[in-house]
Amino acid sequence: MALYFMQKQIEYILVKYFRFIILMLPLKSVQIFGKTLGQISYFLLTKRRAITMDNLRNAFPEKEDAELKKITKGVFLNLGISICEFLWFPNLNGAILTKLVNFKNLDLTVEGNKRGKGMIMLSAHFGNWEMVALATAYFIKKPFTLVVKTQSNLKVDEIVSQHRMKFGNIPVRMEVAVREVLTTLRNGGTVAILADQSAPKESIFVEFFGRSVATFQGPAIFALRTGAPIQMGLLYRKPDMTYEVIIEELDYSDISEYNEQNVFELTQRHVAMLEKYIRMYPDQWMWTHRRWKNIK
Fold first, then answer.
1. What one-character-per-residue DSSP string does 106-174 give?
2. CA 272 to CA 154: how far, in whole Å?
3. What are the φ and ψ backbone dihedral angles of 64, each rounded to 5 degrees?
4. Phi, psi of 75, rounded to the nearest 5 degrees
5. Distance CA 37, CA 81 (A)
6. Which of 81, 95, 98, 209 is the most exposed place for a label (fewest CB within 10 A)?
7. DSSP 3-state percent helix, strand, coil across the chain (nearest 5)
């Protein structure tokens, strides 16, 4: 037990020290540093590299290994850059965000918030997923309730939460989020959810890249129970290290009744929408995760 707490303390100190260095640098240097971190991770994290290649081979059977290897390298670069940018969040301000993040259709989110039923903003571990929640909430001047997974190191979790709250967003632990999500939606607020990770075997199974995979049904249940619109917001990194945000609303007006079949159908629809964008920008998604751990 003592060894466990010592490991957690060392981990916390290392994160704090690393963050201190990051915060001393200009953003461009942070991004270059993150790219280098990604390159190193690609060579050192052999298990995650193998998982990524295996996932890509199953998702894109038509692609040659040389192309999949290039995508894999891009995945690790994206992760390295995203981690370093996240640690730099305390330095962000409105002027920096305006230059860094461009929205194609932010008015869609503004309009969705005006309907009075709250809104569900779905995203994924895509581009810099932490940035999209922070930037969108900042520009529409309305904080999000973020459904998040608690970090195993609670002291590190405190740092992560502070960064997420930079412009007023409110993190809510996934384990106790149901009541908070429903309350937020019924009060006209916006709930942000990452719904792209592996779900338990007891979850529903929908098609994702040609395989039937366990998927969280929470977003569909929340939407059908409250009538809240569902929008997907994805932020992708451009070659110049700035970002473009795509927002698309999911139409479910034909299945608005809350029942088991409609939960399945709505889940399949938002998963298909995510797949569409991953196919467009495959190196921006986190293929290092065992997304197809539970399949039929």
1. HHHHHHHHTTSS-EEEEE-SBSSHHHHHHHHHHHHT-PEEEEEPPPSSHHHHHHHHHHHTTTS-EEEEG
2. 35
3. -75, 155
4. -60, -45
5. 8
6. 95
7. 55, 15, 25
